[in-house]
Every structure is written in structure tokens, then in C-alpha cells.
Structure prediction request, 564 residues.
Amino acid sequence: MGKKYLIVGGVAGGASTAARLRRLSEDDQIIMFEKGPHVSFSNCSLPYYLSGTVKKIDDLLMMTPEKFIHQYNIEARVNHEVINIDRDRKEVEVRDGNNGSSYRESYDKLVLSPGAVPIVPKIPGIEKIRPFTLRNVRDIDQLKKYVDHIKPTRITVIGGGFIGIECAENFVTAGYQVSLVEAQTQILTQFDDEMVQILHKEMYDQGLDLHIDDKVIGFDTNQVFLESGNRINSEVIVLAIGVRPDTELAKKAGLTIGKTNGIKVNQNYRTNDADIYAVGDAIETYNPLTQDCFILALAGPAQKQARSVADHIHAIPIRNTGYIGSSVVQVFNYSAAATGLNESQLAKMNIEYDYVEIIPKDKVGIMPDAEEVHFKLLFEKPTGRVLGAQAIGRGDIVKRIDVIATAIKFRATIQHLRDLELCYAPPFGTAKDVVNFAGYVASNLLNDNFQQIKMSQLRSLTENGAYILDVRENNEWDEGHVLNAHHIPLSALRVRMNEIPQDQPVYIYCRSGQRSYNAVLALQYSGYHNVYNISGGFMGICFYEYFTDQTCNRKPIVSAYNFN
Prediction:
């Protein structure tokens, strides 16, 4: 005799659980409840409807209740909200949004996938505006219709995470004037400071009015007030401050909530009730790198968790290795991807680590579409274990982060990165891929072959009169250089080495860090013991300095910027 499975939530986690349960048995009754009007929609694609990249609202819908019943024999009840769980009787109470009535439904197993809800803080004056949030197809449809109707002079997006950035970018693409406000000192806290400045610059170059390190303190009709004293006149305001796990139903049922405020589950995604599972944005997830739990609002992990739940229900062994948080976002012409831990996380954990910052090409340089990859690798000392990576560029950066994510899951070291055999042909990559290159540089650092400093340290060094050496060629120097730097091209270094002092530290840069590394080695072999490579080179310095120089009227430390 078949079992009866109820699923709360009909998007990534819920729909995937239902589909997997059906694939494992044709005998069971499967009912999925969704309090909204749609199931199985492409949540991550919602912002792209604002620019017309997704042409029709119906294109966001992957499945319908009719398809679920006809193709999978799964009953998807939309506009039906589960409002209570009776754990003793193994029943749920459901409110039918179509007519307001309520009824009860029994279950053998219950799966919770309610997702997360947008954070809407109680900011003074919020009652004077119409704040939009983005959670589902109905939300994005209402926002698009409102914008199309009033044709605003400016749209303000509050929040510099994935949803906020994608929303702002798509409005700019659609031709609107857009402001993006972020209370923290940067957007996208997955990335380290020197990496995210590339994205700040891109937003600035695309005409987006970016306010960072500035908190919204109030609203008035068509106005946003910032802590800095700035005021933004805006007819449309989108709140993308963040999300929190939707745990209301779980709390009412007496299910355990973890320290992260997500539903606490065990290794099999079971709650403290053996007949109730939970997946997706509503649960806290284990991170093997931090050896702790965190909230991870991503569709990929939700779908994998869903499959595990269905398997466990059918007594198929599962292996829960946790999640490290791999993600990617498009920011106009750039892609930005990250996996694992960043420096701020490592500092809080008191893990001894080192880093690699390189800017190689994503393919052979003579290819007409070759692009720089701004790549950062973080690894543990003294083991060399790979802990995280970030990549930003206009070319193919995703596959490099995917390789690192795979390496982290298998506890690889930087030596493994050196040895990876990755596909090579000039239109696709280089014989020594970005990942291999990072492994070589990391190995040199771990072996104490050279020392380095960050591009973010250069301003302080120039202000304190440090000896900074530019080893690029004359034409490169003429196009832009660090002010007060000394210039000796690498091609002339060995015959002019006597010009370089030995009684003080020497900080060396080239275009991206490769030639300066060779200069460091040459000086070390000649008796210099206090020489440092400036990671990222002049290109990295320019990207790091530009946005703050332009928006804060700060005096540049370069004679001219060069981003090529």
C-alpha cells in the first residue's frame, strides 16, 4: 500500500522533492502546497524580466499544476497555505486562498520547503512609500507593471546583494536612472575588498548611482534619506536588504530552530520530528570549512537537499558533505564568482592563511576575445589546503571557480592545483590554466620563494615615501604609473641594479605581477633580502583605487589609470 507525502512549498526544494519521490515510486500519493499562485518558477531569473531579457512573465514558469498532475501524478495545490501542523495526529491544517475555507490533510511524511522571506525593516517613513520586494513571480510582475505605468525618473534599490545588484542592473539595461544603496562598505560581501572594487568601478562606469557605506535612515513621499545626509528623489523603491528563513510554521509546530534562526536538521535533513523533513532556504546548512552552520539561500543546494530527502524516505543511503557556498553573479559586462571562504571569514576564524592575486588571460592572449581574469586564491598554512577563491572578469571565470569548488570538496591542496590536467586550446584557455597558475604562485609563497604585499597597501606606502619600483617598459610607464615610483624596465634591471637601495624595503610592480615577480627573484639572487612583489600589478592598483578616487574626490596615487 502506498504512502502519503505532503510538501510545503512548490519552488526549488519542494518541487524537486516531489519529482524525486515520484521517480522512486508510482504507488504513493504526493501533494504539494504553495501559498502563492505559481509553482516551480525560475526564482533566480526574476530580475531579468525587468529588462526584457526574459520576454514574457509566463517564461518564468517552469511547470504548472496541470503539468504536475498529468506528467507526474503530483497534485500541486496553489493558493493553499499550510497554517498549522498537528504532529500528534500527523495532519496539517490548510487554508484555501481561493475561498478562505480551511481543511486538514493527513501525512505519512511531511517535507517543509517554505523558503525565505524578504527583510523589511521598520524604517521611519516607510508607510509613505510603496516598497517592493522580490520573492516570486507575482512580486516581479507587480513591480514591472508599476514601473511601466508611472515611468519613473529614478528607481532606488536598497541592498547590495545578489538580488539588489541584478535588479539594479536590469533596470539600468532597461534605460532607467538607478541608485543602489548599500549600508556596508562594499557590495557582495562574499568578495574581498580589493576584488569588489572592480565591480564598484563597473557600476560607476555604467552610470549606476552607487552609495556604499551609507545607511537608509528614513523615507518620505518619493524620497530616500541617507545617514550621510544625502537625499535621493525616487518614485520607485525596491527593498533587497536580504532574506530570513521562513520558520513561522516550524516554530508553531514546536520544531527546533537552530542558532542561525533556520530550521535545525540532522545529516538526513530530518527535523527533531522523525516524520518531518526540511530543505532549502529555511534550514541552516553545515559548512565543512567553518565546521559550523550557516544560512545558504541558493537553488542548487536546495535541489540537492530535496533529492537526499526523497532518497532517505525510501531508505536509500545519502551522504551529506555540507555546502561551501559557491555562487556567481553578472554585473553588467563582468561576471563575479566565489567559492569557499574569504579573508574576513578566515580572520574571524583565526586560521593562518595566505593568498594569491593574479590577473592572467582566460585564453591565449592573441585570441581576439581574450580577457583578463582577476583571480584570488586563499589557502591554509602550513598545509596548503585550498580554502576559497574569487574570480571577476569579462571572460570565462565560472569554470575556474567551479574547478576550485570541486577541489575544496575533495580537500585538495595548492599542489593538486598545479597538477590538474585541464582542457587547452587557444580559443578556450591556456596551456597553464588560471587554476594551474594560481597553484604555482601559491606553492612559491608557501615555500618562501618570495614575499608580496596587497595592492591595497600601496597608497600608505606612497604616502610614507617607500621605495617603489616599476619594471614595465618605457611606453607603459608613459601611459600611467604610480606617482613617485622609480622606473627601471625589467629588460634593463640587471645592468642598473646598482641604482636600487639595499638598506630599505623595495616594492616592485609591473602590469599584472608576472614581470615584477621575476624582478624580485633577480634581486634576491643578487643579495637583496627585503623585496616585495605588489600583487595584481599596475592594473590591479588602478582597479582598486579608481572608484573611491572618483566618488570621494580623493587625490590619485597614479599619474593616469590604465585598465588594459
The radius of gyration is 27 Å.
